[in-house]
Amino acid sequence: MAAQRADATRKPAIDRLGIGRHLANIWRLTIKELRSIRADPVMLILVVYAFSINVYTVATGASVEANNLAVAIVDEDRSALSRRIADGLTPPLFRPAVEISARDIDGEMGAGRYVFVIEIPPRFEADVLAGRSTSVQLNVDATAITQAGNGSAYIQTIILNEVAAFRAGRDGVSTNPVDVVIRANSNPNLKSSWFTSVMQVINSITMLTVILTGAALIREREQGTVEHLLVMPVVASEIMLAKILANGAVTLAAAGLSLVLVVEWWLQVPIVGSILLFLTGAAVYVFTVAALGILLGTIANTMGQFGLLAIPVLLVTQLLSGSATPLESMPIWLRWIVWIVSPTPHFVTFAQAVLYRGAGFAAATPPLLAVAAIGGVYLAVALRRFRRVVLGG
Question: How far is CA 389 from CA 15, 132, 291, 363, 382, in A?
Fold first, then answer.
């Protein structure tokens, strides 16, 4: 009650202050928040790790394309065509094919030595040249599900291409009526690291902004320093904005350095669009998720409660953002809910358009407007709870 009376008595005086005094208060509180971050070495280490080593390990360690896969071949035909198929399995997609016998297939695959074993039957070349129906058996170790799916598609394409080229060389005409030419835009070699590195930077922005702002509020409540703010000539909006600006500035600076030093220089991922435009949009997004962090900080009373509350929120937000799985694969009702309540899918759309396809400000404006609208709702709810729960107003 004393805090409420103190807040009520100082509000008229503060309301009479000009905008310059409000900005001065926000500036001083922001400096205080930055000093608090600087004095927390664990949090600084987390920021550095999340935007450097974590981005690198996720980009290089979570590869989804076929790469250096172990393959064996059972050649019961011993023909020029069978040797041609074996020679077509080349690095970097596959290791050089190793020839084994049919009786060794189960043992070798059970021991995990080979992901694929190709069985070429007797008289395979003769049947192909005679136009008779024949088959090639592909044994797959499906415990490595991603490699099994991608690798099987590559092997099937290689076999079909080698058979078609072999028949064309013998007959002098191509057996394929259509020649399909594939040109992959923005990622010609379909390298997953080009995608996962940038998406991990976005995930780190989301995670650290929520953690930094929420932890800053919880830390003051646990240490009792929030009581000092009650006797200062400041209002709740100034305190909230200072926390958002300070922690958001740290996150934006780390994200910008991560894109330049880790993504572009260390991982050699080409950034097509403007990093400055991306950081401009990221500032709007950081403001939104920082308000979410403040909101979670007003719900939790301790740092442990905040951690338990933030984990499912961040997990659901990232999994349903379109950075891990396409939004089109979700049920329609879930997709609409995510688009309405979460700013992350809109920011992922913005980031992909700017960094991958080089979109300009006009094309990137619609998702940013959606982020800003959701952020306005988050900020209003967080400010209301901050006044009622933290300041007792």
Answer: 22, 80, 15, 40, 10
Q: What is the DSSP letter of 223?
A: H
DSSP helix/strand/coil, 47: helix
Mean pLDDT within 56-67: 78
Fold of 71-171: abc type-2 transporter like fold (3.40.1710)
What three-state secondary structure class fits 98? strand
Q: Compute how many other C-beta atoms are within 10 angstroms of the C-beta atom of residue 374.
A: 23
Please give the single-letter amino acid code of residue 137: Q
- Give the up-direction half-sphere exposure of residue 75: CA atoms within 13 A in the CB hemisphere: 17
Task: Look at the block and give the residue holding tokens 């926390």.
Answer: 243
189, two tokens: 């070699």
**How far apart are the C-alpha atoms of 172 and 183, rounded to whole Å?**
27
Cross-strand pairs, 72 = 98, 117
Q: Locate the domains of the chain by residue range.
A: 2-61+191-390, 71-171
Phi and psi dihedrals of 40, rounded to 5?
-110, 90
Residue of 391 and 198 predicted with greater confidence: 198
**Full DSSP string of 112-135:** TS-SEEEEEPTTHHHHHHHT----
Nearest to 247 by CA among 279, 209, 203: 209
Tens-place pLDDT, residues 98-141: 999 989 998 988 888 898 999 999 999 998 888 888 889 999 98
Query: Strand, coil or helix: what is 69?
Result: strand
Instruction: Pull the structure tokens for residue 310.
Output: 């933030």
Q: What's 302-316 look like in SS3?
A: CHHHHHHHHHHHHHH
Tell me if the bond preceding 92 is cis, omega within 30° of 0. Answer: yes
CA 83 distance to own-chain centroid: 42
HSE-up of 305 (CA within 13 Å, CB side)? 12
Token couple for 170: 């013998």
* Buried b or exposed e, range 191-215, using 16+ CB within 10 angstroms: bbbbbbbbbbbbbbbbbbbbbbbbb
3-state helix vs strand vs coil in the chain, percent to 5: 70, 5, 25
pLDDT bin (cut points 50, 70, 90) of residue 64 is low
Strand partners, 139: 117
SS3 of residue 74 by DSSP: strand
Strands 137-140 and 116-120 turn out to be antiparallel
